[in-house]
Design a protein that fits this description.
Number of domains: 2
Mean pLDDT: 95
CATH class of the largest domain: Alpha Beta
Low-confidence stretches: none
Number of strands: 12
CATH superfamily of the largest domain: Isopropylmalate Dehydrogenase
Largest sheet: 12 strands, mixed
Helix content: 40-55%
Order of helices and strands: EHEHEEHEHHEEHHEHEHEHEEH
């Protein structure tokens, strides 16, 4: 049975609230799965009282215990200033992630579900990572990884992540796209159980460059890769991005590879807000997260919706199960 660690995210956002709401729901359903939560003790106690939950918890002691009790891994108390990114909230979020990675690497947990962090708080705290994805990749010294977004309606991946638009063109390369397609292929088959996945690749420019009249990236970089990789994968494109989403062509594919953040995230969140899941692909660690942010505007009010972190939990378990089965089948073969 998979052992799952949750991080607190930014303590001044909705992360602790949605995690504790999910724990309450899971324990009410009599789940005996080993669940752990890494959070400053004062923050956990504050939300435990605010939300009027009554599930049992105990302090972690070098082993994640199964049963109807949360394994609480307390961090030092941290100052709460609800609704604001602060140095303390950035440090607590970072410490929670680092501790969770340590436990997974030590074999004490199987999967990681992270609550939303604030990049502003990270910057204030002097933490030089733009997000979870880059931090996790660095922990494995892995240069080839992808930020993916998973849902029942569409699965998508980003070629570039947290980069200004003015830099996107210079970041594109044939090698980068080939690596991305390889990760999608492996993730789809090994982690998601999708055999021979159909992959759509979006163009970068308006009208997908319109034969080089509105940018040359499609002709010089994207199309040659599709032709080359199409000999060993089921790939199509480059598609005109707005028409692809507007005409719902995504329904014909198992995965969509977009060139930059908002090209994928705007349509994805319109379809899946509060139900989409962020997944870091290409790593040994299985890590999922809600596809929304810290929601500082509603933090501390007890009204945050835990659906997305529940989906992140569900998909993390699915990926772990699929990966275990794949490894066992490969050994048997």
């Amino acid at each position: 049975m998979s052992r799952v660690i949750f991080t607190c995210g930014d303590i001044n956002g909705i992360g602790p609230e949605i995690a504790i709401k999910l724990f309450s729901k899971l324990f009410a359903s009599k789940s005996k799965r080993a669940l752990a939560f890494i959070c400053p003790l004062n923050v956990f106690e504050y939300y435990y009282k605010l939300l009027k939950v009554d599930f049992k918890y105990h302090f972690y002691n070098n082993e994640l215990r199964n049963g109807l009790s949360l394994n609480l891994i307390p961090l030092d108390n941290s100052k709460l200033i609800i609704g604001k990114a602060t140095k303390d909230s950035g440090k607590a979020a970072y410490q929670s992630i680092v501790k969770s990675i340590e436990l997974v690497k030590e074999g004490l947990a199987d999967v990681l579900v992270t609550a939303p962090i604030s990049k502003t708080a990270f910057n204030i705290a002097g933490i030089k990572f733009p997000g979870h994805t880059e931090l996790l990749a660095e922990s494995e010294k892995q240069k080839k990884f992808l930020m993916m977004f998973l849902s029942k309606k569409v699965n998508a991946a980003l070629l570039t992540i947290h980069n200004p638009l003015k830099d996107i063109s210079s970041l594109l390369s044939k090698e980068k796209i080939i690596d991305a397609l390889d990760i999608i292929q492996k993730t789809a088959t090994r982690d998601l159980g999708i055999q021979n996945p159909r992959i759509a690749v979006l163009g970068l420019n308006p009208h997908a460059g319109e034969n080089g009249n509105i940018g040359s990236e499609e002709k010089e970089i994207i199309t040659p890769v599709i032709k080359l990789s199409g000999k060993r994968m089921n790939i199509a494109g480059p598609f005109v991005p707005d028409a692809f989403w507007g005409a719902k062509f995504y329904k014909q594919f198992d995965f969509v590879l977009g060139m930059y953040h908002d090209q994928v995230l705007i349509p994805f969140k319109l379809m899946n807000f509060e139900r989409g899941v962020n997944y870091t692909a290409g790593l040994k660690i299985i890590r999922t997260s809600p596809d929304h942010g810290t929601a500082f505007d509603i933090a501390g009010k007890g009204i945050a919706n835990e659906t997305s972190i529940q989906e992140a939990y569900r998909i993390a378990l699915k990926i772990h199960s699929n990966r275990k089965r794949t490894i066992e089948e490969e050994k048997a073969y």
